[in-house]
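input
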Amino acid sequence: MKEALSEVLGQDVKRLDLLQQGQIGSIYVASVEDRRYVVKHSEQTEKLAIEAHMLEDLYAAKIRVPRVIISKGPFLVLEHIETIDQPKVTQEIEAATLLSRLHTETNESRMYGYYYDTTIGPFPQKNEQTQYNWTLFLGQMRIMPMARHCYDKGKIPKQMVDRLEGLCRDLYKRIDMCTIYPSLLHGDVWSGNVLFEKEGACLIDPAIYYGDKEMELAFILLFGTFGETFFNAYREIHTLSDDFYENKVPIYQIYPLLVHVALYGGSYVGELERTLKRLKI
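output
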């Protein structure tokens, strides 16, 4: 692998150390003469190419992400981010600053979805563009495809799929779309996907699309990624909906819960059931 990577980079790779096992392959730190790179290696080359494309789009939007050095075949080579230790309060303020700037990004056509299909972890994210209709996109492009995948894999019963289908039919009754506009979302903000360097926060492993910015915030709450300091700083830029905590949070947590049911099953099925009951479904 060192030889193959050296050929791709056009530089002699001195060391190649396994960093972690990723969702679709292995992640390494490669050391060359005067620097280090993060290298993702996978036979799922199309997914690596999509990740490179997403990172390049975020970089073009002036959102701090690792720069793509090269994307070729089974290799995705990225800038190595030099992280530093910081107080939790500082991290949360820096994350709020970066994410509030990301959520200010929109598109001229006011569409939900994206210009191409993206990924979240090992799963595809279909991004058919459903202009102006956020609830239609959320139901048809996010919740139901993942619910059907979970059912096909034997992770949830048919009755739960039927309940989710009923919810998706009525989403327009539960969510006031008048106050929502398409915001660019990272799509997978958990603690492992936000790094902190001297200059501030940096996002990795995106799952981007245009959606309601509060979808991202519900995801953050679900996994306890950030706390009160983050939300206080975020609200200085973007106000929250009056029904955010009571109504939107449980609805918006369904999709990430389904992703985790598909990945891990177990306790996430129970958490999904509790969320549906909270919504009286």
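quick obs: The chain has two domains: 2-79, 88-278.
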